[in-house]
Amino acid sequence: MERLQKVIASSGVTSRRKAEELITAGKVKVNGEVVTELGTKVTDKDRIEVENVLIAKEVKEYYLLNKPRGVVTTTSDDKGRKTVVDLIPTNARIYPVGRLDYDTTGVLLLTNDGDFANILMHPASEVEKVYMAKLKGIIKGEQINALKDGVKLDDQVVKPSRVKLKKVDPKTNTCMVQITIHEGKNHQVKRMFESVGFEVLKLKREKEAFFDLKDLQSGEFRKLTPKEVAKVYGLQK
Ligand code: URA
Question: Can you tell me the distance from the alpha carbon of 23 to that of 49, in angstroms, rounded to the nearest whole number?
Fold first, then answer.
């Protein structure tokens, strides 16, 4: 179920504000009846006419991108930088599900399906995100334990579900740590490591829910299969 004005706007015929004007002016029909109520909810099955022209429904599209560095996770950038949407050739109005920082790489989903995006982002779904972080310095067991006990971000204690030290390089004084979280706060992983005294030099999302980077080089993308889309719908609580 979606709001009528939203469905009209996403079909590409006009903006959402213009759609609202058309509705209140009595120029929109749902299943042959004029509807002037702005909050009216419609489904995929409803026939919507704007000024007696049937609108085309936007087909839902779903992509998995291996986000490269140096690309912003938005649909447009006021500084003219390249966005993740620029990497995918489509006319559908897709947008990223959640955020990765400009310099963060890895798993990023994009879609024009708001329900799909909400399921993945809703805290109740408890979707796991696995990150590999390269840290400046070498983390000790007690610092890993402090992370596991939970750190305070934005007045909320966040606890990773797993933290694993994967590699230590004394020569460059760096280490690789894999961390699994459920939330999606701004700069969450960087801030979590910062709170135990470490700077993140590189960050890659290796996994979100059951999506990983198998067969995708940096900057490459693929469409999701209908099975994968259904599986995401199955995560809904
Ligand atoms: N945590 C961060 O700090 N940055 C990201 O891009 C994702 C998670």
Answer: 10
